[in-house]
User: Fold this.
Amino acid sequence: MASITTAEIAKLLAGEVVGDANTTLTGFATADQAKPGDLTFAETEEYFAAAEKSAATAIIADKKFSSTQKILIRVPNARIAFAKALAYFFPEPKFSPGIHPSAVIAKSAQIDPSAHIGPHCTVGERAKLGANVVLQSNNFVGDDSVLGDDTNLFPNVTLYSRTQLGARVRIHSGSVIGSDGFGYVLDGGIHRKIPQIGSTVIGDDVEIGSNVSIDRGALGATVIGKGTKIDNQVHIAHNVKVGDHSILCGQVGIAGSATLGNYVVLAGQVGIAGHLKIGNQVTVGSKSGVMHNIPDGEMWLGFPAQPDKQAKRIVIALQRLPDLLKKVAAWEKKLGANEE
Assistant:
């Protein structure tokens, strides 16, 4: 693990040292596991008190904190600094350029010399892999696919034909990009398949979790905007458009041809019906079923989903329903109403 002085880490984190600027830090750990030489972080009073009592040498903290016991690296935002510090102390593994002997590469494929192609990977006809692309192992890249610079596919990722990935895309194990959309038409009592001949386009800096399915467009493309982060076990159907820098949490499902704006947040197990338009900076609460378009900037929740204030009023009313039923029964008895 790398070592660094408190002054150097403060510069890296755009912070300031309060205490000895020449002390060497050799690791990063949570307060309950820290040992001498470690850096830890705290963003609340409770966590800061625990960090002060720990064996850690220094603490990353917001500017409001002070200490007579520990060296502080005071920063504008402890959570952002925490992410940067972790990346320094625990850097991503490096993959050397080259193609493993067990890989199967089409003769028409174009692979940058700096790319790493691991064991048992397949790269199809006319596929293009940019600088520093990594296929870790057992990856399938279909015909006419394009992978931008510094893209990393973890083991067992499948890209169907005509998939386009931007730069610095990360896709975790078990995910399938560009599979057929779920398109059928009833014809004489049978479900006739509608050929799915479109493509899938993933923007720069997108990260896709494990076991995610993103379908190709029936015609045209399914599009994921730049900077969007997709959690595990998410399904995105054909011709969906997801805007830039959105967050899709675990087990979200988005039906065909829905459009999401920029900076949308869908909490866990949210379902979006087909052909809807979800505006910019919309947040949808966990387990909500969205059946209507949502304007920019609104927060919705519930099943069916509705604006959060209305949904909360309904929840409160339902909680009061048992007491209301008791009151109604008491009035019926007092008035001599029959049981029916």
